[in-house]
Amino acid sequence: MMIDQFLNYLRYERNRSPRTVQLYEENLRDFETYVQGVDDCLSLQTADADVIRGWVEHLMDEGKKPTTVNLGLSAVRTFYRYALARKLVEKDPAHAVTGPKKSKPLPQFVRESEMDTLLDEKLSEDTYNNVRARTILLLFYETGIRLAELVGLNDEDVDFEMMQLKVTGKRDKQRIVPFGEELAQMLRCYIGQRDESEVTRQSPALFLTDKGERVSRSQVQYLVKKHLSEVTTLKKRSPHVLRHSFATAMLNNGAGLESVKKLLGHESLNTTEIYTHTTFEQLKRVYNDAHPRA
Known about the structure:
By secondary structure, this protein is mainly alpha-helical.
């Protein structure tokens, strides 16, 4: 009876669409069935917050996605607000019940073998464009810096003696990022070819366009997408994917979470921890492929 009254309220007073009313009804009928199954003495009028939480857990146990469960909980909350306003119930048991958190998608990353193919085979020719592209890709992959940080690099930010970069991150915070011998050689090669070209230098930037100006974000994004498309079928083929690839490769090869946090310039360890889920997913795949009883 209460549900019917509420549905009529949605139809005729709130002018909700038939599809919306149908979704509310499906969720509320399901909730009512659950309440009746918990205890014969329970009803919609007497159900408390624990009963509603039990229903939420029941939906999760059935394999419902957090988004679906939260939509159902929203319907129950709206129903009880209506019932309390019409004095059909003495209190609203749903207002304090929280739904499940939406699961965040795991970061996508390029496999180490794919990066090896790209850097060692696809861009092996020493033309200027290839050298510049390879240097940019290797810099992203070996340091994990952000797109804006790479674009903002100047020659003076590269310290070959100490083998480190001075990177200006979010809110102009600076950090020092080390790099290895392969990147050092690549940077020297690129800078040498750049300075030998006939292009008039218009900027102190490390990476220049063919007109001598600082490369733009969109130019670097296009370059990365173009070359990653040669080795991976990932939907996302951006500089940020290379940042994810750096973090994943570091953790897979024994780096500590705190160290990766500092290298990435994260303020909170919680931000870095998402990569542990990625590496654990890899571990599960290895286990399933390798164990004879898995």
